[in-house]
Design brief:
The structure is a single chain. The chain is 68% helix and 0% strand. The protein is mainly α. It starts with a helix and ends with a helix. The longest helix is centred in the C-terminal third of the chain and has 34 residues. It is flat and about 60 Å long. It has two domains: 54 residues, no CATH class; 35 residues. It has three helices and no strands.
């Protein structure tokens, strides 16, 4: 079998694997227990144990949009730092070879 045919078959399998859960669980929401996420489950378990927080946050974002923005900025800063060091190490190894 040619490499091109194998690549096409693999691509079709990846698409099927990605779409199958969406088709199988379409119409089911959080009420049925699907796509609820682990945060809600963990919060319910912690509340059931009677946990009381040690402290409260000193600042809470005024809206969900601001909270999302701060999270995105934090993720971008982390990605920039990681990318810088990977680029630095790549350039360092390149110049050591020369």
């Amino acid at each position: 079998m040619k490499t091109r045919n194998i690549n096409i078959i693999l691509l079709i399998l990846v698409v099927i694997i990605a779409i199958a859960p969406m088709v199988m669980y379409s119409g089911l929401g959080e009420d049925e227990g699907y796509f609820g996420g682990a945060d809600g489950e963990a919060g319910a378990v912690v509340e059931g144990l009677g946990y009381e927080p040690w402290y409260e946050s000193f600042w809470e974002p005024p809206s969900g949009e601001i909270e999302s923005l701060l999270f995105a900025v934090q993720a971008a800063i982390g990605a920039i730092i990681i990318g810088y060091f990977f680029g630095y190490w790549k350039a360092e190894s390149k110049y050591k070879k020369e």
